[in-house]
Amino acid sequence: MLHRRLLARALIALVATATVFGGGQAEPEEAAAGAGGEAQQAPTAAGDQWPNAAFKTGDFVYATPADFTEATGHEITSYQEAPELQARVTSGEIPPVEQRLPEEPLVLVPMEKVGQYGGSMRVGSVGFTGWTDFTDARWPGLLRYSADTAQVLPYLTKGYELSADGKTITLHFREGLKWSDGSPFALEDVLFWWEYQILNDELTPTKPGLWMSGGELAQFEKIDDTILRIRFAESNPAAVFTLAHHGGRQRTIFQPGEYLKTWHLEHNPEASAVAKEEGYDSWWEAYMFHQTYGPQQTDTELPVVAAWALDTVAPTHRTFVRNPYYHAVDTAGNQLPYIDSIIRSLVGDAETLKLQVVAGEFDINWREVSGDDYPLLLKNQESAGYRVALVKYPGHLVFLSFNQNSKDPAKREIFQNVAFRRAMSMAIDRDEINEIVFAGQGVPSAVTPDASTSFYKQGWKTAWAQFDPDHANRLLDEIGLAERDDSGFRLRPDGEKLVVIIEYQERGPRTPTLELIKEYWDAVGVQTELKPLERTFYFTRVNAAEHDVGVWHLDAALEGPLLASKNGSLNFGAGTGAGVEWINWRDTQGQSGEEPPEEVKEWFEGTGKFVVLPQGSPEYIELGQELFDWFIDQVNLIGTVTDIRQPIVLNKDLRNVPLDGGVYTWDSLYVYSYLPEVWFFEN
Amino acid sequence: MLVVLLATATVSFVLIELPPGDYLTSYIVQLRESGNNVSKAEIAALEKQYGLNLPLYRRYLKWLGDMLRGDFGRSFEWNRPVGELLVERLPLTIIISSFSMVFIYGVGVPIGMYSALHQYSVRDYAFTFLGVIGLATPNFLLALILMFGFYSWFGWSPGGLFSPEYEVAAWSIAKFLDMLKHLPVPVIVIGTAGTAGVIRVMRGVLLDELTKQYVITARAKGVVERKLLFKYPVRVSINPIVSTIGWVLPAVVSGSTITAIVLSLPTTGALLFGALMSQDSYLAGSAVLFLSVLTVLGTFISDMLLLWLDPRIRYEK
Hints:
The complex is a heterodimer. By secondary structure, chain A is an alpha+beta fold. Among the domains of chain A are: 140-304, Alpha-Beta Complex (Dipeptide-binding Protein, domain 1), CATH 3.90.76; 393-642, Dipeptide-binding Protein, domain 3, CATH 3.10.105.10. Chain A contains 23 helices and 24 strands. By secondary structure, chain B is an all-alpha fold. Chain B starts with a helix and ends in an 8-residue tail after the last helix. A two-stranded antiparallel ribbon of chain B has the order 1-2. Chains A and B meet through helix 1, strand 3, helix 11, strand 15 and helix 12 of A and helix 2, helix 3, strand 2, helix 5 and helix 7 of B.
């Protein structure tokens, strides 16, 4: 497998070089500039490097037509629909557009111009299990993040209020909103999910921590037909971010209750018989199958509220077609989305997919292309009919950490020594990594919250992250690692050679980055080995704290996601297992895992307090700075390069796509926060 | 034969369960990769949902029992019945494989004959050289090169069996033509190694036969060269090729796995590979079993073919 991938990579590189240099159409000098001078072609001025980094999604979203009129003075006088829907109305298959839209639809402002209906979005993916590229556009949220996650915007609901004490969230539902099968979508669908799925012990034997606060389950309360109140026992303002992200969508907070009742025992006494007939052992298995929404959905009858609904499931592809009941319109009253359908093709291999992208077979792709493909992508853009936007990935594609719960007592003592971690961080030449692996397009950095967060402090990015091998050597000498063996590698205090093994799953820029890090660490006398693992095996080892150094990528560096994932990215878990046994200890209230030292306990308590403070308040900023001052100073996680410039390939006819120089991350659910409903194909 | 099959079933199930972790571990990793945090409580709930909290032998018995009733279980990853997944991939797998077989024998046998008849000629060396290259080049590499070549010379789309716009279209002349455009690469790639093998075998056996006395006698009697060739030595030398046709059956159904993955062909081989990677145990187990059954069947068929083709082979009483 390893060899196959390497060879495939080599071949692609060869092909890339051949394309850049070959053909005879380009003068040699020009060709050389195309390969090496990529930095000159891209915008370099600091000001326009990220023109859309703070893309104000909120300026293009109005909760209702009334809000739109109030803000702009324009009025929406009538509603129109796509021609194919018109035909279905004429044939009597569906009701007219006025009856399909809610009483107050969501209004989206096209960034460039009002679009035209039509076209299919072609996307490719390796496997069907992940949200990918344009399928993220089908995210059915009660609320929606802005692209920079700074705002939480209306979507299915008209909006929310958070009480001053942070204990209550009030959601305002739309009257007359409908599922894709025409049945009403209302707050009862949230209550169905809560009462019959979450509170049902067969379907949900252990209740989700997301909706617990102070050890108690939240309360879901219907105030009137359109107002739902969620109450927590303790202040929990970060729940709003959860609602704007993966905790606020079909399956995680609402369900098409009417549809699913057929398979639910409390609603249908025959549910077990129905399940048997469909080939399931129990009613809840059948229920779980039919409720599956997202990439794994295969029940095409399942009602949805997103702009596109699953239509066909085939071995090679899935298609999604326009939801005729979608609840949004543009400024001219045209029902959205503009694009008719999505075709998601299954591709066997990432390198093949890349070749198809270069051939212009897909209308959007970013997962299979990376910074070093940029010259190849530019070379082919004319003939293949796409353009390349550069977006900012605000996390780390590669970061690592020492396992401070190592099972080897000698290693544990060394890894827990802050001087050791600082030395190892300073031994890394991040500028060189940036040049070699990321074509000089990123920012060398420690692992920190993103610079856009309200509590960000100057100097965090460079803390213990300046290349200084002399300082590193001095620190290592001072902590009892001064003895060396014949080949110059350091010995542990017990006389054994200190060997550090970096375990990782091969993916993206990890291998080239880690090969460099191995050199840097060897150079300061710490013998380092690389050990690529299959990812399941990697996680089995990391979760059992059996590794020395783990490697993963980092999301959730932006403010909202960081708060919502208090157990997540910037923590001891973080995918690299910096202190998994400590996390275990905390999560099980001391019943399993390992008791952490006092300062780590304080960090856990502090993060618990931090996430419930009002965002942006002085005490919030103070505590945030205090917490991360400590965390970064301790070098619990070791960063490499952040703010990476990532190419994204787009069909050149696509309009209303404000992606150039924007933030593009899972934190804001990729395209979802860039209003894909108003994207359209010109011509 | 039943005992053999039962043993295969057991072995395949156990093998698939051997590595650490299960489908759930892979699934949780995937959730983590996309930024979800999965708590211990949620993991327990998922385990119950997928029936992975049961001990190994109970899952095995359940799988075996269901299979006897024609139910192969559900694929965790695809969230669909395994039977359906396998069946819907069969037609395209068979199309690709039959084209490849036609290619293998259609090209291999004549070239093998030519080489034998013109031993040590320039062309014989050329074919030998090509054959060795064909055997030695890894298929995926050949696939990538051809894919890129066909794209840059003819503008034919790389990968898959259809261009995206035809993928969802109903069958039509245009779709069929689109498929024909996509076929050469997989057929050549899958067929090359096989063709090279056939050439070598055909050439070797035929050379042996040509020097035998009955050929010389026939020639001496003035039998027309062409008639002589096809009536005797060729029939004999095709025997070893026919006896291996049976092994081709499972290969036909699994498709050439690595090639299928590189070329994104929707064959059962690629499906099996994915299932093994994500430890989707019911799907993987059923697919392995299915292939074993076909191997047994294939051997049986080639025995029958030989019996019919070669009058010298008879059952010993």
